[in-house]
Structures are given as C-alpha cells and as structure tokens.
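Exam revision sheet. Question 4 asks you to relate a sequence to its structure. Input first:
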Amino acid sequence: MQAMDLLFDRLRRERGSRADRWLADEPVRIAADELGRAGVADALHKQLSELVRDYPGRSFLVHVDGAWGAGKSTLLGFLAERAAGGWLTAPYDAWRQSKVGPPWLTVLHALRAAVRGSVPSRRGRAWFWLRERARLVSLRHWLALAVFVALGAAATGWLLGGAGWTMSRSGDMVKLIGGLFSAAAALWLAIVSLGRFVALDSRRSARAFLETRTDPMEDLADHFDWVLRQADRPVLLLVDDLDRCTESFVVDLLDAVQKLMRDDAARRRPAAPTRARAAPSRARW
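Answer key, structure tokens:
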C-alpha cells in the first residue's frame, strides 16, 4: 500500500490532481471526449455522407477493429451523435441479441423499431404496424381468412333469418347469442393466430415463416427492403459488442446482413434509402 501511495503521489505531482480519478467503464458522449476520438467519428461521418451522395440506393459495411476497451462502443456513440438528423440510426447489441433468436430476426427487430419509432404520430405507427403484417400474409392465408369470414357471415345470416326464430321466444334468443358469440370468438382466435404467425417477432413465427415459404430468404430480403423504404432518410445500423459473440453467431450475422441488406433490391428500385452498417469487433475466427 505504501508503494501505491507513493506512485499516486508521484502521478499527482506530474499530471495533476485527476491522475488517480476512477472512471466508469461505459461509453461517453462527445461532450466528455478527452481522447480526441470525436475527430475519428467526424471522419467516418464524412465518409458515409460521401458514399450516400456518390452511390445512392446502395448498401455498404464499415468494420471498426480494436481490442477490448479500445473505445469502439464510444466511437459508435460519437458517430450516432454526428449522424443524428441526417441518418436514421438503429442500434444493435450483438452480444445481447445472440441468444434471442436467429440473427436475421433480431436485426429485423432493430430496424423495425428504429423505423417505426421515427414516425411522429401514433396513428402513423399503427398504420406501419398494420401494413407490415398485411404484406407478410401470403395469398392462401388471405383466401382462408376470406372463406372463414364468409362462412361466419352465412352462419349469422342463417341464425337471423333462416332459422325461424322470433324475439319473443327465449330459446331462439339464447341460440342467437350463443351462435354469434361462438362465431366472434372463433374469428378473434383466427385473427390473433394469424397475427402471431405473420408478426416475425418470435422464434416460432420465424421458423413458421421459413417453413411455409417457397423462397424464404428472397421474401425476407424483399421485406427488409420494404421496411428500410419506410424511413425518410438513410439508415445506419450500428452493430456493437460483436467481439463478445461466438464465432458461429458472427458468421451467421454477417451472412444474414449480406443476404438481406444487399444491393439487389435497391438496383431494381433506384430510389431505395441507403443502408450502412458499422460493426466494431476484434474477430476471433
């Protein structure tokens, strides 16, 4: 302890009273930058802006490499601050999401939350939610729902007009109420089940989506493209803590990003928003 005290005394004399200050191990904001890394964030932001200008509608990846504690998360935070306003930033903590579900599903959650959160009104967010679910329903599911609704309407009509009931007969009233309640409950269960099936917000719905599509990855790429198109500005996906993940998750995540946020759909629709991904890591594979 005496040696440590002597060391701190020497540091205080050489560097001032802040030499022995303890710091929190967490990212800081640009206002608290003491290492001059805001300049690196400015350079990255400038490069990204030039890519958006020179290659509209294209996607690209920026990889920031560094050892643990080098300040990669802080740099991403600085970049998010610099990009605020001109970009729609979507933070993605790879380490936390690595156990939640397949990488493509968790990336979709991050993009969906960012895009829907950018809509100013509650009505607009609800409309985005409805449109996204509606486009995930395949034609055969729409046909099945239409048949179910038609059968329910026919059954209701039969109860009201074809069964010979009168309002004075309590038995007919009980039969009517019971039939309407059963039809409404069945319709509600069908809608809820269909909503869970097409929501793409759980492992079960993701597995069902992959198993019931002829070309699921192409459908997913098209859906990613649609979600990104709802943003009114370029989208910046910030992937953090990738160096804490297993090798298999890193490979699956990068593979999903390559397949689902690629440029093919953007080439078919030149007005697509630019997509950028900044992923800090020190790869262990």
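Marking note for examiners. Residues 264-273 have pLDDT under 50 and may be disordered.
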